[in-house]
Amino acid sequence: MVFKMTYGYTHRIFKYSNHRIVCKSIEFCKSRGWGNSDCTHDEDAGVVCKDERIPGFVDSNTLNYCLIEEVRLRSVVAMSRKKLPVTEGVVEVKYKDGWAQICDLGWTIKNTHVVCGMLGFPHERKVNKNFYKLYLDRQKNHFHIHSVACTGTEIHLAACPLEYSKRNATFTCEGGMAAVVSCMPGPLFMQNNGLKKKPKISSTVRLKGGARLGEGRVEVLKDNEWGTVCDDRWNLQSASVVCRELGFGSAKEALTGARMGQGMGPIYMNEVKCLGQEKSIWNCPFKNITSEDCQHSEDAAVRCNLPYMGFENSIRLTGGRTRYEGRVELLSSDSNGTQSWGLVCGESWSTKEAMVACRQLGLGYANQGLQETWYWDSSNVTDMIMSGVKCTGNEMSLSQCQHHKTVSCQKAAAKFAAGVICSDTASDLVLHAPLVQQTVYIEDRPLHMLYCAAEEDCLSKSAAKANWPYGHRRLLRFSSQIHNIGRADFKPKAGRHSWIWHACHGHYHSMNIFTHYDLMNANGTKVAEGHKASFCLEDSDCQEGVSKRYECANFGDQGITVGCWDLYRHDIDCQWIDITDVRPGNYILQIVINPNNEVAESDFTNNAMKCNCKYDGHRIWLHNCHIGDAFSEEAERRFEKYPGQLNNQIP
Hints:
The protein is mostly beta strands. The chain has 8 helices and 36 strands. The strands form 8 sheets. Strands 4, 5, 6, 7, 8, 9 and 10 form a 7-stranded mixed β-sheet that branches. The protein is globular and about 100 Å long. Belongs to the lysyl oxidase family. Its main location: secreted.
């Protein structure tokens, strides 16, 4: 008997001669019955699921590809064969140990639309059939499918009505030829194809929190603010509209239950019912949200089909203990076209470069970017072929990042080559902006109460010249509530053996820099800054159903659990900006979490929070507090140019 569990369904497979019986749920398996047990909880059963579906698995939000295992475009133009992605060619399906063609009798543009979508392309183009007919007439073709009748809304050829050629029969497609299609790639995958006007990616839909390109939580823009989509009735048709709108193909999966992490802010849509041919998710019928309808634990997500680019063929990891870690080696070609494997200089290598390397490898997020790899097994590859790598973190391959034209690496030994540790999941920290706005105030604090804060460098430089212990410092105080909305716990990079004990405050600091607090004027110059000392990371509270795991007391583990938050109240030491030397005026308050990207996250664009700030010398007001990626680009530009506070006048 074989016992496997996949994606929520338990399959118990009894193997007999040539058939099997499958139980679709564990409730149908033989047992003593519900509640009839002599077990205690220390005997609770568990499983480790394999990340693949067994043949025959059916889910309403995925498609069973058993009938058509694989589809490809075979380019017949010599120059096009070397370029990726392949956008035009003969449609072929995997058949036995080879490939077979599809007869194009009755072939329509709707069929082409479906084929292009499943191969990662959002749109189709007209194709010159006369050119292909001359070529195909001289070729020997084997036709496996001789009739396709897609409606155009299917997400895979297997979902269309198909007629197969009879087994062992010869079908010649008399009066037709092998089906040929031409697809239009999305902007991210376009080569120099001479198009005067390139298609644009939607500015009102985006994906967040995904480990790989073309996947993530669906977010939509309304009234210049981004929000999420509820997963009620979320299906492949609606997901495909989102994917094509963003320049990808049709959807591979429509994910529910916040599988790509929970968003923050508004939830705009519920019960989205796309037919599949809409240009935008905003063109689909949907219901508006009420507070009782949906929570962020129901945020919808997608995985889209992408064109094959072959990026993973020019990079590999060596020396690591698992396939998710190792020294980065790149494939290079010399002037003669000879290919060989080479190393990347570890100098300046950081988490952002590691993010790109892990993405290129198809291994998800970067857990760490390593500048030294001497502790891993060495290989026969010793030459440095890339140095000075600087990535934004969004590139699809390291070759798209900035790097030195000529290799320049001071530590050129292989033990100083760049390395990565990749992961399928990552944390994602977000500051709760409304709380900052609600709790802000000014305190004039006596110097004799600030000795510990001075020791941790939490005051401005002029404090050193003060007449201690007499006088006071003026402090801008507020509370910070930092949520982990990712899919992995946020944990300090350093082990507890290297944490620093602070006797004055009586706790360990697990990170050198965790948060920056800055007050800036209109041109972006800092006029005051908060302390850069580390914090004690722990779970202050969690959402319903999530248990706390981290607590600083008694040298406990530090971190923030998924679904929990760390609260720094306005009345604790160093939770402030020293504004003693700041003149009255209009400013911008900026708070940045994990500013040096020291700990890997799935998304760094939401680590900053900004507020408009007005200070009259006695009182202070904050408004428009928002996460860095919460507003549209237009709204963010208006925020930066804001001349002063208009809706909260000083009496």
